[in-house]
Amino acid sequence: MLPVFNEEAGIQVTIDTLLNYIEQQEERYELIFVDDGSKDKSVPIIKRALAQNSSIKLVEFSRNFGHQIAITAGLNYSKGDAVVVMDADLQDPPEVIPQMIEKWHEGYEIVYGKRMQRDGETFFKKFTAKMFYRTFRKLATIDMPLDTGDFRLMDRKAVNQLMKLHEKDPFVRGQVTWIGFKQTSVKYHRQERIAGETKYPLSKMIKLALDGITSFSMKPLQFVNIFSIVPLVSSVFYLGYLIASEITTLLQLE
């Protein structure tokens, strides 16, 4: 299952690569694309492939709702015994999927990809991603694995449980950790994008980080409470001072 947003430059290569890979496997499959309100030719390209292969499915959004919502929509639409979530730019290599399936056959219900190297990304992107995961682990109430994204395999039981969560702004990788089940990882080398530009600019990265921290940490609320108590206590003391001053003044007049 792949979320798609303005990927016309590389989506045909992605389709051809995945079909060539999947058709060599023994498992039956469906290839689900979730278009997140693309404004380019991504959808027509997918529809041409869909007309030639009934195993390809397409979910279309009326506008751009965001990567995380696109993931949940695709998971909700899926029907397989297991679902692999990956990006449409082939930064998540299909060659890792057999390792995930092997772990699934061993009894693991969630198998996530652990990034050991990230090609084609700026120092700033790598640094902020690294800092986010480590900061999140210190603040959050869940033990989310380091250096992981949304590239993972999920058993149908885990998918069904995840779909019971109804978040307006979901943070999927945090929710997947939170629901439990038997989880493990496979290490992989994250590739450079095959074409186009990243769909996660700084503004979206910040929003994703805030959604994650506010969803799975009480620390921000605790900070707010502390800063709220300080002026409240100050006001109480000031009110006490005014009352005492008024009483003193009245006593002096008598």
UniProtKB/TrEMBL annotation:
<comment type="similarity">
    <text>Belongs to the glycosyltransferase 2 family. GtrB subfamily.</text>
</comment>
<protein>
    <submittedName>
        <fullName>Family 2 glycosyl transferase</fullName>
    </submittedName>
</protein>
<keyword id="KW-1133">Transmembrane helix</keyword>
<feature type="domain" description="Glycosyltransferase 2-like">
    <location>
        <begin position="2"/>
        <end position="161"/>
    </location>
</feature>
<keyword id="KW-0472">Membrane</keyword>
<keyword id="KW-0812">Transmembrane</keyword>
<dbReference type="Pfam" id="PF00535">
    <property type="entry name" value="Glycos_transf_2"/>
</dbReference>
<dbReference type="GO" id="GO:0005886">
    <property type="term" value="C:plasma membrane"/>
</dbReference>
<dbReference type="InterPro" id="IPR029044">
    <property type="entry name" value="Nucleotide-diphossugar_trans"/>
</dbReference>
<dbReference type="InterPro" id="IPR050256">
    <property type="entry name" value="Glycosyltransferase_2"/>
</dbReference>
<keyword id="KW-0328">Glycosyltransferase</keyword>
<dbReference type="GO" id="GO:0016757">
    <property type="term" value="F:glycosyltransferase activity"/>
</dbReference>
<feature type="transmembrane region" description="Helical">
    <location>
        <begin position="223"/>
        <end position="244"/>
    </location>
</feature>
<dbReference type="InterPro" id="IPR001173">
    <property type="entry name" value="Glyco_trans_2-like"/>
</dbReference>
<keyword id="KW-1003">Cell membrane</keyword>
<keyword id="KW-0808">Transferase</keyword>
